[in-house]
């Protein structure tokens, strides 16, 4: 039986941690230990967090060695070092060269040397990992050309180059041997980084306990909201609402309609119309292709809906059976999540989401294990994100508009209902028109596809986001034109901020050298990507959330101020985006380290300027 190694380093201890794929060791702090994977979570001085194997972690004094006399003056050695792939910038070394020591450690040569402070590097000049580029530090250029060349060797990532300059590395291998090991090391690094990304070191949403409660809390909340909204007195003070008999909540017809709707959308998704674009490169190095045809699908849906209305199909069914439809959608999303969880055990390990592989069934089921589950070219997450739920929301809103006319005996819908329908239609059309922009969002790039997203996409969005329209059916609110115009102005401002911010980031991520963005200031990061620090992203750190929240308020205001229920969306959405912002911030700090801190220093507010 394999013996489990004991934990040799404690949390908070400073140790030397090997940088994956190199022989370089840096001072790192142990932040945790995973017994099942036997990996240490460590934090580098630049803020980078990784999981390291026991063998890649050494005590702090491990490299303290006796001084050796002198190979320091060897010119040959000096030259050979300057071309070493693991080469870092060296200080003036002609006479008072930094300490250089040598020691046998497990048959390997140890060397240690002092390094100067980080020198400026123009990351924008790097186009790919094979590029050679030169520091523009004039003083150095004059001093020694060889020393000034930062050679980005094939096996070395940009992150390593910067990290090399951020700390004191210790090279465990004789330099003459290094060339031989380049290829092996590259493969080893890829494997190790992949393996490390497999196990989720930390858990969000309160871990497995939080996930467990969310799985039940979300459907219960939605059912209660819909029940309360249907009451004449839609006050939260009259909580709990009367609970209908269980058998009335279930309708096979509603499930049939939902499944047909889902399949109809899937059919539209498969139509070979619209261009095919590439998503952003994933952590495993792969890039997936996506067909962009959601807007066409919407037009076809609208035509089908128009034909149905022309043939006197009664959309009031939606209002009469909203709860049953929502429950059918819940059952469907639960079954889909189970399918997704089961199939995730059959996919290659590098296709798992970074956050959905904690080892806890409940947590992983909730968060989603697989990053981009696909059946052949059919991308389940990408499909669910924008189509059945978002378009379903529009159809539900329309059904509620007809219901309002019928319940209140109106010839035309109320101004409030028209505003709610129009604002939300604009939001959906915008998402469908800018379909490709979703490819750079957290949902696609980072989150797995599990219960959280299936429920969110298929149930929460269409049934909770239509709460204002549902409320207006039974709670009329007559709006004057000046008030309506003020609300329209608010929605327009929100939309401009939301769209401007999302488009700017999307364009920048797709092509950082886009001439249209040349006026924007950026901060380089160790990953090779830059961060926008002016324009919308210099205003607050999440301007797109700000715009979204302004719009959310504009969607609730037409419902008046009698009850708080129609404001549920804006309250919930504020909490969601504040939490989401914190999650994203955490991820970005891990990804970008010091560069992210620099960004935060320059752009002080997260979402609301001068407030938060
Ligand atoms: P974002 O589109 O805000 O993406 C966050 C990512 O953007 C970061 O992880 C980072 O990724 C990149 N980024 C952050 N700061 C910068 C910067 N300064 N310069 C360049 N890139 C930066 O995330 P979301 O997916 O959360 O939101 C997308 C949209 O969807 C938003 O408008 C949001 O309001 C909306 N939304 C709506 C919901 C709804 O229910 N209606 C729910 C959730 C979101 P990297 O650097 O890796 O590219």
Helical residues, percent: 40-55%
Largest sheet: 5 strands, antiparallel
Radius of gyration of CA atoms, rounded to a whole number = 29 Å
| Domain unit count | 3
The residue ranges in which pLDDT falls below 50 over 5 or more consecutive positions are 65-186, 188-197
- Total helices: the number is 23
Given helix and strand content, the structural type is alpha+beta
How would you state the average pLDDT, rounded?
Answer: 78
C-alpha termini separation? 54 Å
What is the strand arrangement across the widest sheet?
4-3-2-1-5
Describe the structure.
By secondary structure, the protein is of the alpha+beta class. The chain contains 23 helices and 16 strands. A 5-stranded antiparallel β-sheet has the order 4-3-2-1-5, with no helix packed on it. A 3-stranded antiparallel β-sheet has the order 6-7-10, with no helix packed on it. A hairpin with a 2-residue loop joins strand 13 and strand 14. The model is unreliable at 65-186 and 188-197 (pLDDT under 50). The structure holds NADPH dihydro-nicotinamide-adenine-dinucleotide phosphate. Residues 440-443, 498, 502, 505, 508-509, 529, 531-532, 537, 542, 544-545, 548, 580, 584, 587-588, 599 line the site of NADPH dihydro-nicotinamide-adenine-dinucleotide phosphate.
Quickly list its features.
612 residues, alpha+beta, SH3 type barrels, 3 domains, 5-stranded antiparallel beta sheet, 23 helices, 10% strand, globular, binds NADPH dihydro-nicotinamide-adenine-dinucleotide phosphate
């Amino acid at each position: 039986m394999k013996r489990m190694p004991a934990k040799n380093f404690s949390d908070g201890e400073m140790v030397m941690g090997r940088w994956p794929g190199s022989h370089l060791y840096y001072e790192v702090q142990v932040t945790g230990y995973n017994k099942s994977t036997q990996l240490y979570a460590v934090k580098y001085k630049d803020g980078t967090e990784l999981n390291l194997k026991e063998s890649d972690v050494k005590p702090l004094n491990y490299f303290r060695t006796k001084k050796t006399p002198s190979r320091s003056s060897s010119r040959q050695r000096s030259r050979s070092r300057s071309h070493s792939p693991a080469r870092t910038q060296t200080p003036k070394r002609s006479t008072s060269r930094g300490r250089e020591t040598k020691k046998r450690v497990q048959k390997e040569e140890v060397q240690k040397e002092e390094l100067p402070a980080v020198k400026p590097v123009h990351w924008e000049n790097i186009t790919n990992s094979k590029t050679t580029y030169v520091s523009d530090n004039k003083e150095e250029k004059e001093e020694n050309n060889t020393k000034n060349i930062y050679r980005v060797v094939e096996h070395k990532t940009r992150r390593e180059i910067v990290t090399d300059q951020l700390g004191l590395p210790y090279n465990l291998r004789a330099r003459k041997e290094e060339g031989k090991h380049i290829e092996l090391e590259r493969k080893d690094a890829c494997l190790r980084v992949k393996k490390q990304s497999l196990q989720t070191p930390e858990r969000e949403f309160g871990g497995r306990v939080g996930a467990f409660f969310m799985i039940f809390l979300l459907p219960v909340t939605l059912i209660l909201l819909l029940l309360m909204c249907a009451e004449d007195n839609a006050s939260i003070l009259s909580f709990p609402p009367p609970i209908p008999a269980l058998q009335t909540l279930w309708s096979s017809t509603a499930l049939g309609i939902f499944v047909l709707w889902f399949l109809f959308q899937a059919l539209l998704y498969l139509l070979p119309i619209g261009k095919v674009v590439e998503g952003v490169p994933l952590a495993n190095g792969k890039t997936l292709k996506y067909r962009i045809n959601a807007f066409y699908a919407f037009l076809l849906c609208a035509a089908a809906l128009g034909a149905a209305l022309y043939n006197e199909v009664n959309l009031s069914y939606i209002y009469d059976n909203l709860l049953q439809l929502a429950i059918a959608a819940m059952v469907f999303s639960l079954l889909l999540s189970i399918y997704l969880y089961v199939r995730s055990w059959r996919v290659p390990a590098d296709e798992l989401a970074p956050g959905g592989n904690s080892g806890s069934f409940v947590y992983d089921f909730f968060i989603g294990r697989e990053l981009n589950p696909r059946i052949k070219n059919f991308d389940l997450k990408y499909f669910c994100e924008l189509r059945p739920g978002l378009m379903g929301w529009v159809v539900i809103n329309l059904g509620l508009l007809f219901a309002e006319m019928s319940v209140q005996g109106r010839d035309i819908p109320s101004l409030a209902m028209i505003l709610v329908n129009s604002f939300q239609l604009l939001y959906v059309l915008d998402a469908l028109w800018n379909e490709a922009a979703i490819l750079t969002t957290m949902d696609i790039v980072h989150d797995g596809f599990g219960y959280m997203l299936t429920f969110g996409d298929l149930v929460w969005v269409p049934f909770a986001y239509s709460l204002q329209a549902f409320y207006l059916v039974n709670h009329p609110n007559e709006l004057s034109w000046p008030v309506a115009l003020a609300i329209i102005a608010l929605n327009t401002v929100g939309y401009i901020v939301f769209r401007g911010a999302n488009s700017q980031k999307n364009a920048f991520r797709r092509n950082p050298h886009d001439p249209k963005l040349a006026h924007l200031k950026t901060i380089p990061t160790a990953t090779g990507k830059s961060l926008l620090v002016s324009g919308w992203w210099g205003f607050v750190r999440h301007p797109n959330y700000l715009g979204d929240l302004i719009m959310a308020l504009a969607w609730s205001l037409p419902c008046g101020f009698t009850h708080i229920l129609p404001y549920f969306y804006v309250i919930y959405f504020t909490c969601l985006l504040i939490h989401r912002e914190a999650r994203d911030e955490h991820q970005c700090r891990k990804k970008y380290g010091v560069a992210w801190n620099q960004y935060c220093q320059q752009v002080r507010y997260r979402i609301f300027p001068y407030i938060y």
